[in-house]
Amino acid sequence: MAYAPKPPARRPRYVLRTLIVIATAIAALAALDRLIPSLLAEDLPKADAVLVDKAQARLSLVRNGEPYRAYPVALGAHPQGHKQRHGDERTPEGHYVLDYRMADSRFYKAIHLSYPNAQDQAQAATRGDDPGGMIMIHGQPNGFGWLGWLIQRSDWTNGCIAVGTVAMEEIWRAVDDGTPIEIRP
Hints:
By secondary structure, the chain is α+β, with helices and mostly antiparallel strands. 29% of the residues lie in helices and 23% in strands. It has a single domain (40-184), classed as L,D-transpeptidase catalytic domain-like, CATH 2.40.440.10. It contains four helices and eight strands; from the N terminus they run H-E-E-E-E-E-H-E-H-E-H-E. An eight-stranded mixed beta sheet has the order 3-2-1-8-4-5-6-7, covered by helices on one side. Helix 1 runs parallel beside helix 4 (165-174). It is elongated, with a radius of gyration of 22 Å.
């Protein structure tokens, strides 16, 4: 009886196809991550102010002195207390201004807070510290908005105020540059 060689294994093709399908699905989710919030977000009235209550982990849009829309937030990884220095992973407390926005952030949109203000800079200087900066209200990391339900369960930022992607789209539309923000302990 003659020996017949085995046909080559097909396993590598299946593995490659599976990896291609997974990569395509991840790419599709990332593309939808940018599209879905703009489709689901409501157009809200313009806010006169923004209020963040760190103890309640809530951001509220305020009009005529009354909150009219609220969103859960994730804060800095060490949320208690006012931001003291660069790298302390605390979210500042006090009165600031939302002074500019970034559509091309590494998160789903971002609006910058005017932290550090003159008082923050002076206090940091007396301690010999860098007060830090680049504190933002922002959405989920780009490509991971679909995981927001999980990511938002803990305080994970470096001091920023993170919201879900649909929430960020609504805030983006409702808040103009120059809007005051108060962050309460």
